[in-house]
Putative undecaprenyl-phosphate N-acetylglucosaminyl 1-phosphate transferase (uncultured spirochete), 355 residues
Amino acid sequence: MLWLSLATAVVLSSVLMPLIIQFCHRHQLYDRLNDRKVHSDSKMPRLGGIGIALAFILSIVIIRIFQIDEFHQLYDGYRLWPIIAGASIIFLTGLLDDLIDLTAWQKLTLQSAAAIMVMLAGYRFKFLVVPFGSGVWNFGLFSYPLTFLWIVGITNAINLIDGIDGLAGGISGLAALAFALFFMFTSNVLPAEICLALVGSIIGFLIYNLPPAKIFMGDSGSLFLGYVLAIIPLLSQYKGFQGTDIGVLSAATVLSIPIFDTLMAMYRRFRAHKSFFSADRKHLHHQLLDRGFHTSEILLILYSLTVVLAMVSLSMLFIPLSWSFVLNVAMFGAMLLYFLRFSRPDREKNMHGPL
């Protein structure tokens, strides 16, 4: 059933996208042009997130129906309704923002509600596997603020990197595939199916979003992807410690490009005494464009880097946990140093300097 969830999502997403494109053209639901946009097409459909979300949720429901007799035995108590309900709230939040423009505080309030919903259902980062002491560092009550910041942060981080054709979808798809491989190697069936359903829904979208794009995912897609990607690592700790675990460190390593791009955006706005919710044109993909890279080259660079990050994150499956821990810390630190160097004021003045 693992690959059925992937195939079902690919088919649903790829079939839905042309219908959504036609719907957007018929009702003139196009992406809004502004100073931070890199495209010039004033008639670009922006509701691809509808296809991503529907394909993902429907594929999970279909797989659930096919496995109804073995569900409780196979999945040992996983509760899907908080995840689907929270993802639906996030999707509707993004859709409303695409259609009528919600305020930043309205979006944050709804995102917080969706995060709290899954946290109260038991999906939290409860511990971190470490190569010292007892081997497990329990977060205790700190698990609540940590998980809340993680969910809201990743939800918005994917939204912020959605700046050029194929970027947010590609990075999200590769991250979801990395998580799927982890759950497949550790024989966690339902989380693996959820990951592959997300991968499939993204593949169907990328068929129409890779350059030159025919449709954008909009906030309904980017916020939805960010939320689901934030929830997936929590699945490995839902039923308690089972040995090998994704954990917050490995999950952050996979997603370190959107994480650090978001943190650097917050730093720039703090330094400029601007609101954290204000927009700018200095994200990583913008700066690479300003340095003369083409969209396809940027995708190749950032896709390749995401694959490397995923391999480091999955190293726990093939090497001792102590080595994997050190490798993840080193890679995460290297990404931090790179983004700090990339965001220096003298770099911003000399936009055509070497990387």
In short: Residues 2-349 form one domain.
